[in-house]
Each structure stands twice: as structure tokens, then as C-alpha cells.
Amino acid sequence: MALMQRVLSGIAPSGDFTLGNYLGALKHWVTFQDSSDALYCVVDLHALTNDIEPAVLRHNSLDAALNLLAVGLDPARCTVFVQSHVTEHTRLTWLLECTATYGELSRMTQFKEKSVKGREAVRAGLFTYPALMAADILLYDTNVVPVGDDQRQHLELTREVAVRFNNRYGDTFVVPEAAIPGTAARVMDLQHPERKMSKSVTSPLGTVGLFDPADEITRKIRKAVTDTDGEVRYDREAKPGLANLLELLAAATGRNPADLARDYTRYGDLKNDVAEALNELLTPVRSRRAELENDLPYVHRVLAEGAEKAHTIAAATYTRAADAMGLLPPTAD
Ligand code: AQP
Question: Is any atom of ligand 1 closer than 6 Å to the C-beta of 172?
């Protein structure tokens, strides 16, 4: 019998989860639990690439774990853990920083965008973050990484680093594939449809929080920026705001955005249906979250067991990589 594919993905506790996180990633993580040996982590070390209050990071990390369980990750069917609880993530990162090149890290669009206000002051970790992400993935012999479209370039780098390492030091890492959804792979800000909806960018009307109350979601969708020509059609280039709304409805209903466009003649009707579909999708997530808040010891237990399972896999891969590079093992046989 063929072994199940291994799936891994992570989310940074850098702010409140958004609809983009949910439709681009989390919703698919839930699906992968049934067909794969799946591991999902709260990547708290990634949140340190920007300045964040220690108390906020601690709070967000537990909050993120609650959210992951609330969206439907089931510890009986997947492994949920916090990245910093498995020390091999940072240990392998160094080996990969010594495999990746300065040139390729410099070409990462996310670094360029996030350091636009000046390279001198940004944290070095923001620059080397893709090596940490590569370590997150490669530690688990991952076959498939479900992510949103914004992570495409980092995934490609992970693949290149894995191949280079394997060529230089012998077959060590599984080379992973990205799984990027066909619809809503890049949910855009409702007020600025030219940029992605993001949890760490302040855009109160443009960002839909995963746990926004229903009337708040409806209000934001009604106020979403569209255009003035009044024609409902799916065209990401010419009509980015409208295309975003059609993609939201498509992702929530399992339909195709271009087909959906043919059902509407008025923007207002489309917006009402988008709001209704999103609220239907998110109501169960909100109620599961409320239940979990009353059982924090359970959440801590899930994380402790998850870290133990993850560590068993990660330790073996780290040792293989360290050995391959020629690091002297701590104990001689
Ligand atoms: N707008 C989005 N549309 C679709 N997918 C998205 N993702 C993020 N934003 C969108 C996907 O969510 C997963 C977790 O994201 P992350 O925590 O790794 O952070 P990120 O990709 O850098 O996204 P954020 O939410 O904008 O976080 P900050 O503000 O910290 O940079 C990933 O699979 C991502 O693709």
C-alpha cells in the first residue's frame, strides 16, 4: 500500500486571522487532513521578523492555535503544534542559510515590499525568513505545501535549496510541491483591491477578520470598492474590486467566478449574496471558537502532543542533514 503523502503548512501569529488566510490556506488544510499525513504549525518565529510586543506574541500564538482548531483541524486526524516548541526548526535554518545564497534571498518580493521604507532598519530575520520557511517544510519530508499565492516564490526557493543540498551533500530532503487554490488564492483588500488582504496591515474596512461579527462582515462587503462602469463581469485586470467579490462568492459556494458573474446585473445584489455566503461559511467557525475558549487546557494538551509528534520526525531529518554536511555527531557509536 502506498504511504500517505505528507502535508505541512504554517501560519504566523502576527495579527488577527483574515478571510484571506482562511480561503487561501486554512480551508484547504482542513480538506488535506483526510487524504494526507498532515502537520500544521503556528509559526511564531516568523512573527519575530517584525517588531511585536512579547505579550502580544504570546497571546496571538495561543489565539492562533484556537483558531486552527476552530476552523476544523482535528488533532485525531492531523498534528497541530507551535514552531518554536520544536527546536530543529532553528537548527536546520542555519544549515539552509549556508545553502541558500545572498542573491536568491535578495530577489524575494516579500522582502523587497516589506523593506521598502529602508533596508538599514529592517530585521535581518526578515531577509533570512525564507530559509526558516524552507526548514519548516524540509524537516518533515513534506510532499505538498498548501499555501496562498503570495507564498509561491518562497516555495520555489525551498525547492531550489532542497535540490542544491541534495546535489552537494547527497539525497537528504524530499523536494516539495506547492498546492495553491484555483479560486481565492490571493484575496485582495476590499478598499485597495490592488494589494492583498493582510493581517499585519491596518485597513479596518478593507480587511475581513475571520471572527468579525456577521453584521460587520456585511457592512465591509457593502462598502467594498468596485468601479463605475456598472457591468458585472469577471476581469481581474480591468475590474479588480469586482473580481475579488466574485472570487469570494466562488470560494464560499464552490462555483466559478466567471459563471457567477452571469447571474448578476447589479453590484448591490452581488454584494448582498457575497455577505450572506461568507456569513454562512463562517458562522460555524465562530461558534466552535467560542466552545474552545472554555477549554484552554485541551488546547495546551493538543499543542504539547503535537510538538512531541513533530519533534520525532524533525529530529531524524535534522540529524540526516547535519551528518550529510559533515557536522561531528555529539556522541560516537
Ligand atoms: N490575502 C490572502 N489571500 C490568500 N491567501 C493568503 N494568505 C495570507 N494572506 C492571503 C495565506 O495564509 C497563509 C498564512 O499566512 P502567513 O501567516 O504565513 O502570512 P502571510 O502569507 O505573510 O500573510 P498575512 O496574513 O498577510 O500575514 P502578515 O501580515 O504577517 O504578512 C499562507 O499560506 C498565505 O499564503
Answer: no
CA of 9 to the centre of ligand 1 (A): 11
Q: Which of 314, 283, 190, 166 is nearest to 245 (CA)?
A: 190
Distance 283 CA to ligand 1 centre (A): 22
- Ligand 1 atom closest to the Cα of residue 12 is 17
Partners of 78 in beta bridges: 38
Three-state SS at 115: coil
Convert the pLDDT of each residue in 12-69 to its tens digit: 999 999 999 999 999 999 999 999 999 999 999 999 999 999 999 999 999 999 999 9
User: Which class for 204: exposed (0-12), middle (13-18), buried (19 or more C-beta within 10 A)?
Assistant: exposed
What is the value of pTM for the model shown?
A: 0.95
Where does the chain have alpha helices with state H? 19-21, 27-35, 44-47, 54-70, 88-97, 102-106, 109-114, 124-138, 152-169, 214-222, 240-253, 257-261, 267-293, 296-325
Dist. CA 142–CA 144, nearest whole Å: 6
Neighbours of 114 (CB within 10 A): 17
Residues marked as catalytic: 114, 196, 199
- At 52 the three-state DSSP class reads coil
How many CA atoms within 13 Å lie on the side-chain side of 278? 32
Beta-carbon contacts of 186 under 8 Å, excluding residues fewer than 6 positions away, are: 20, 24, 148, 149, 150, 196
